[in-house]
Amino acid sequence: MSEWPGYFISLEGIDGAGKSTLAAALAGELSRHGYDVVTLRPSDTELGELVRGYLLEHHQVPVDSWTEALLFNAGRVQLLRERILPALKTGAVVIADRYADSTLAYQGGGRGLPLSGLHWLHREACRDVWPDLTFLLHLPRSIAEERQRSQQLPLDRFEADANGFHEAVRSAFEELAAAYPERIVKVDAGRSPTAVFAEICEMALRRLAGRRTPPRP
Ligand code: ADP
Ligand code: MG
Which end of the chain, N or C, is less surrounded by CB atoms within 10 Å? Predict the structure, then answer.
């Protein structure tokens, strides 16, 4: 059982999988059920915004893979201390749009850094805090790309990377889901938004109902 009364949910998957859309929808639905909900992205601290701005938009100078891992971890330490832990301590449901699995998938699977080193970093810097429940949104990259194209946003440094990188990220996510089946629930994100939303809502509400802290009356 967690050290705090709150509940921690993360959404993971490649860009365009639907994380942000679902984070907002799930937050709305859980609020309607009486839960206090805090939705967070990795850039939701001052340092996190700085770090992600540099890492995602900086195309000119090659960035070493360890620099990527360390900076993403630095952003996450601040997010954890400033936002996630305080919210969990008040009993809120935290919904994180990406968390530590992204670093294992992108810098581990994608860039080839050893998972043991990345796990060590997370254990030491982020107190080994993991979500209670993670939804891994599973979607072929071709469909994710189509969705992103229709948004007409500029590609970031990771999205512009070669297909081999994205394939490695996708399979790292799959391996994480296989390694942590209690925590990570794989969701077929290729269906309609309504169908995906219904599945994750039902699962989140069911898991929350099994917890100590009930929603507000
Ligand atoms: P992510 O945060 O994972 O990058 P987004 O939530 O921003 O993904 O979604 C990317 C795009 O795909 C958005 O235009 C969104 O409206 C659309 N989208 C999200 N979920 C679905 C879905 N299930 N079916 C079709 N389009 C979707
Ligand atoms: Mg998003």
Answer: C
* Nearest atom in ligand 1 to 97's CA: 2
pLDDT-derived band at 153 (thresholds 50, 70, 90) equals confident
**CB within 8 Å of 127: residues ≥ 6 apart:** 80
Residue 152 CA to residue 10 CA, distance in Å, equals 26
Give the start-to-end residue ranges of the domains of the chain: 7-208
CATH architecture of 7-208: 3-Layer(aba) Sandwich (3.40)
Query: Which is it for strands 184-188 and 133-138: parallel, antiparallel or unpaired?
Result: parallel
CB 72 within 8 A of CB 118: no
Using the atom order of ligand 1, give the atom closest to the CA of residue 195: 23
Q: Check if 21 has its Cβ closer than 6 Å to any atom of ligand 1.
A: yes
Instruction: Determine the residue type at 173.
Output: F
Which ligand 1 atom is nearest residue 193's CA? Answer: 23
Neighbours of 161 (CB within 10 A): 16
Ligand in nearest proximity to the CA of 137? 1
With a 6 Å cutoff on the Cβ, whether 42 touches ligand 1 is no
